[in-house]
Amino acid sequence: VQLVESGGGLVQAGGSLRLACTTTGFRFSRSIMNWVRRAPGKGVEWVSMINNRSGQRDYAAFAKGRFTVSVDVNTNTLYLQMNNLKSEDTAVYYCQYDDHRGQGTQVTVSA
């Protein structure tokens, strides 16, 4: 299993970013994928999930209405569109499959 996140960066509050996670080594189309994040000095926090079998999606309360999870099963890629970013969204974002995570991508939101 290999997961590689990208798309992070520095953005002003109110801005947007689209994170991507390219995956290999498992049957993506049948997987349950998660986005999690770790803010400075804090533990890992769940952000969103998508069940690629059923299409079910779910979001943490702070993400609802601002973040959208999606996939491209042709390229085995997971996405997270983040809009109206806030300074408290600053964190390293990871995609997760089962107990596997990528190296993460840094998102920094300036006030």
Structure notes:
The strands form two sheets. Strands 2, 4, 5, 6, 9, 10 and 11 form a seven-stranded mixed beta sheet that branches. A four-stranded antiparallel beta sheet has the order 1-3-8-7, with no helix packed on it. It has strands spanning 2-6, 9-12, 17-24, 32-38, 44-51, 57-59, 67-72, 77-82, 91-97, 100-101, 105-110. The protein has 111 residues and is mainly beta.
Amino- and carboxy-terminal Cα gap? 37 Å
> Roughly what percent helix?
under 10%
Task: Estimate what percentage of residues fall within beta strands.
Answer: over 45%
Kindly name the structural category: mainly beta
Radius of gyration: 13 Å
Number of H/I helices: 0
- What is the succession of H and E elements? EEEEEEEEEEE
Low-confidence stretches: none
Q: How many beta-strand elements?
A: 11
Inertia-based shape: globular
Mean pLDDT: 98
Q: Tell me about the biggest sheet?
A: 7 strands, mixed
List keywords for this structure.
111 residues, mainly beta, seven-stranded mixed β-sheet, four-stranded antiparallel β-sheet, 11 strands, 0% helix
